[in-house]
Specification:
The protein is of the alpha/beta class. It is 40% helix and 22% strand. Helix 3 packs across helix 4 (97-121). The protein starts with a strand and ends in a 9-residue tail after the last strand. The structure holds nicotinamide-adenine-dinucleotide (NAD).
């Protein structure tokens, strides 16, 4: 089997103690690659490499055009190696290869291009003061950024963290999820090829608690923690990061509401609602896993929605016709299928779906579940949706907001006044009206409540990845403050 090491200080290396682990292809259920299994000592090595590259290397002081050109080169290399990167994530977690080519790889490349340009263009503000002084703002790199990533969009989410960190002159230690390690090593190799100096982007593999992940979050040499993962993990990281007052940004779990009003274009609503819950086999923080449908169209919508769920092709993620792969791991399959077993106690009826072959769960539609049922309240992170009818706009808003999460919500209506009214009342970081997962990288991305702390994207990433400094200048004998 191929071996993928840590990438530390520009070298691909095994762990200090030589430990390795296998990464398992969830479709074949066989190991397919061997990975260096890091420990806290490897995490310390990674932080030391990033620290040294920040304190004495060229990257933080490089001109923005030069840094940007290198990141553009990395974006080009990501596209040139699309197949290798697609294979890595497909084999690690079962995402269809065709989706990697169509979505994840292009998005990773555009993350690098966008943040390279953003950092070059959004450099500073100058604020003239009535007193005749003026203030200008310097966005100075924060230092060493620890990026801890989940397994559901490995390449896409890792590049979403690394790109702004690098663009603003930081050095990075990336810890990919233990289920999806391979694309991170491939990306770090490409970064070196693009000309990113050794030590600027380091990758260390291993587990979270009492291992690599925890060592990164407790290190006094880390200046920022950007974490995407479960809300409970966010709480654990927040507790330990507080000891060093290390700033963090958390993108956490979700239980997205998807509200369909009777005046919506039903064809479009069915199609978007299908994508909102079944994309990536439902392993999406943004999944529209609570679907609320206004009563006059409830029966028709449910019938069409079930038909659209049944039409999805589940299978080998390497085959071009496959739309849904298996779940990412055996552990995750047990978690998701375990939720289906709770219906017996909590209430609800499965209209279609259930456990499929191997570690797959078929697109599953549940009706008549009480709003207290676990399948309705908890993040399942699989292709499982509850559908609940409602009568009034007020009721829809109350149902949608009845959750500790608040990452995103969708609403479908052809009434423009209702669209704005309801969007304003939904408690969520993003509201999509008549669409889903449409992103502009300048927009804030993040969640309220248990869905996260902080926002990333555009200027929001800049605020987090830099130490903004105010320089106040006296202008002698100033005539006016313009
Ligand atoms: P997870 O929290 O189990 O793991 C995420 C990462 O954290 C992994 O790399 C893991 O090794 C590491 N980790 C675990 N415990 C740690 C600790 N104590 N200290 C430091 N690191 C630790 O999450 P997951 O199962 O990989 O991902 C699924 C979750 O991620 C879901 O809840 C999903 O909603 C969320 N998610 C959120 C977003 C978002 O943008 N809000 C995007 C994708 C996924």
């Amino acid at each position: 089997m191929n071996f993928f090491g840590h990438v530390l200080g520009g070298d691909e290396v095994p762990s200090i103690d030589g430990e390795r682990f296998d990464t398992v292809n969830p479709w074949t259920r066989e190991p397919w690659a061997e990975i260096a299994l890091g420990s806290a000592a490897d995490a310390e090595r990674a932080v030391a490499a990033a620290r040294s590259a920040f304190d004495s290397g060229p990257w933080p002081h490089m001109g923005r055009a030069e840094r940007g050109a290198i990141l553009h080169r990395l974006a080009d290399l990501v596209e040139d190696h699309a197949d290798e990167l697609a294979n890595a994530d497909t084999r690690d977690m079962g995402k269809p290869h065709s989706v990697m080519h169509a979505k994840d790889v292009p998005r990773a490349a555009s993350n690098f291009r966008f943040f390279a340009d953003h950092a070059r263009l959004r450099t500073s503000e100058s604020l003239p003061m009535d007193s005749g002084h003026h203030v200008y703002v310097r966005y100075e790199p924060a230092g060493v950024v620890a990026a801890i990533a989940p397994w559901n969009f490995p390449l896409m989410l890792e590049s979403w963290k690394i790109a702004p960190a690098l663009a603003w002159g930081n050095t990075v230690v990336l810890k990919p999820a233990e289920d999806t390690p391979v694309s991170a090593t491939v990306l770090a190799r490409l970064a070196l090829e693009a000309g990113i100096p050794p030590g600027v982007l380091n990758v260390v593999h291993g587990y979270g608690p009492e291992s690599v992940g925890e060592a990164l979050t407790t290190s006094q040499n880390v200046d920022r923690i950007t974490f995407t993962g479960e809300s409970t993990t966010g709480r654990a990281i927040g507790r330990v990061a507080a000891a060093n007052l290390t700033p963090y940004s958390f993108e956490l779990g979700g239980k997205g509401a998807n509200v369909v009003f009777a005046d919506a274009d039903l064809n479009a609503a069915v199609s978007w609602s299908n994508r909102a819950i079944f994309t990536n086999s439902g392993q999406v923080c943004l999944a529209g896993s609570r679907l609320f449908v206004q009563r006059p169209v409830y029966d028709e919508f449910v019938a069409r929605f079930v038909a659209s769920a049944d039409a999805l092709t589940i299978g080998d993620p390497l085959q071009p016709e496959t739309q849904l792969g298996p779940l990412a791991s055996e552990t995750h399959f047990r978690k998701v299928s375990g939720y289906l077993d709770t219906i017996g106690d909590d209430g609800g009826k499965i209209l279609t779906g259930g456990v499929g072959d191997g570690w797959s769960v078929r697109p599953t539609v549940i009706v008549d579940a009480p709003t207290t049922a676990r399948v309705h309240c908890e993040e399942i992170f699989g292709p499982v949706v509850t559908v609940t009818p409602f009568d009034t706009e007020d009721e829809a808003v109350a149902l949608a907001n009845d959750t500790r999460y608040g990452l995103n919500a969708m609403l479908f209506t052809d009434d423009v006044h209702r669209a704005h009214r309801v969007a304003a009342r939904l408690r969520a970081g993003t509201v999509w009206v008549n669409c889903f997962f449409v992103r502009d990288l300048r927009a804030p991305f993040g969640g309220v409540g248990d869905s996260g702390i902080g926002r990333e994207g555009g200027d929001y990433s800049r605020e987090f990845m830099t130490e903004p400094k105010a320089v106040v200048m006296e202008i002698r004998d100033a005539i006016d403050p313009a």
